[in-house]
Design goal:
By secondary structure, this protein is an alpha+beta fold. The chain folds into three domains: 49-53 and 211-288 and 511-539, Periplasmic binding protein-like II (D-Maltodextrin-Binding Protein, domain 2, 3-Layer(aba) Sandwich), CATH 3.40.190; 86-192, Dipeptide-binding Protein, domain 1 (Alpha-Beta Complex); 294-509, Roll (Dipeptide-binding Protein, domain 3), CATH 3.10.105.10. The chain has 16 helices and 21 strands. Belongs to the bacterial solute-binding protein 5 family.
Amino acid sequence: MKRPRPAALAALLAGACTLAACANSAAPAAEQATAPVITTSVPAPAKDVDTVDWNVPAGEPPTLDPALSAIESVSTVAANMCEGLFTLGQDYRPEPALATALEHPDPLTYVIRLRDGVTFWDGKPVTPEDVVYSVKRVLDPKLGSSWIGWAAHLRGIDVTGRDEITVKLKKPDIVVPNFFAMPAFFVVQKDFAQAAGKDFGTAKGGVMCTGPYRLGTWTQGQNIVLTRNDAWWNRAARPKVKNLRFSFITDPSAQSAALAGGDVDGQFSVPRAAHDRLAGKGRLLYGQSLATTFLSVLNQQGALSDPATRQALQALIDYKGITASVYRGTAQPLRALVPPAAWGYAEDVFQAAYDKLPEPVQDLAKAKRLVSGSAKAKEKIVLAYTTAIEEETRIATAIADAAGQAGMSIELKPLTAEQFGAVFSAPQARAGIDLFLASGYLDFPEPLAYYQFFTTGNFYNFGGYRNADYDAAIATAMVTADDAARARKVAEAQAIMAGDLLNIPIATQYVNVYYAPHLAGLVPRQSYLNTPWAVALGGA
């Protein structure tokens, strides 16, 4: 989904610096730019562990309601407790979970068979009514779930049998089945949620799900403890860790010290500055991610109304410097908004289209020429970014510095994590912002799922992008079942967006995880945000 990646590496730099200067203050840029080894498998855990202490760098979650799990602080924890009808396997392909079968009798109908004998943590059986309630709860605008976006073409969802629900669409939508494995279809107990009311998901109200871990205790400001659900239906994947204790250390230096000292056993999204310190202590692993860091045009008036301004912005970004010194080699420059790792099908089609897009390189001379010929390009641009992600503070600062060299005027607008999140949900939070630096990620490898958010009128189309040819290409792709044909239409839309520069892609980061040497089993994948990742973890 198009949403923030608030992995709160919460500290501003002590002072601004150019990318070259930052690189020289640590290891040489060439050394930092060396791509890490990608891990696709690790030895399975050999023994049980009583307790694992895991840090959530985004800080304490505001809720554990799975319907509100669009940010890492929530999803990292909730994904181990709550389940959907399907889940994502190691290759990101849907696998049965609370459902065992999916039928698609016509382009507008999906019939889902539910697994028999599944119970909630309190022992009560999961019913089709619980499933329908959970989905409709997400669709209630009053809840404020960002997962509502999947249902743009939904006609209805109903109980149609003792162990069956049916989803009906108004028009075909090839992306919809992917969401059956997402929090849009995570199941909560109807009676429990209704009784808890507005307290559902909070430390006071709790949650009631079916997954491998149940909520034990939540001591606000300190930790959340999950306890193994020994009655979990999936006997073949019984967790080897009995208790998961989550802490909320947000300062990068404190994270590094806690991990290196053994006070914390593991963490996703480890600060780059800590990588060298941790490399010889435990397992610091990297995986391909579905994430993208980019500039997004929020205001198509003013300076950014002139294509020359957007072209100048694209030309002044130091892509190699960002991957070398900011991400320290754990990222790659991007030619398109959706990264190659998210091409889940027809890779040859996507690769050919990707290769036709211009390679992202810094060209300050070009940027200066464009600015000199455009009155609009000299007008002030307000660039917003979050201070909760150290890397993005550095990127925003570097872009503003390079813009100044090209004759542009960029005013930086730092946002707290809370303000940053509001930009994705409240129009008033976007007021006064021209340009937005953000990191998002795809939940599954379907490029169409991301590109559809920029069609005219879409909820996530914050900049009000309008291009009839783009809309037409996406609309055709949405109803095209053949993979190669769909990929060609998505690639067509991708090329149109790349030409219009509504978004300026910068880099795709590798997902990373660190865990202590006494642990084993966990492979870093983007899907940790929506799947019970702790099930793979255990003693070495």
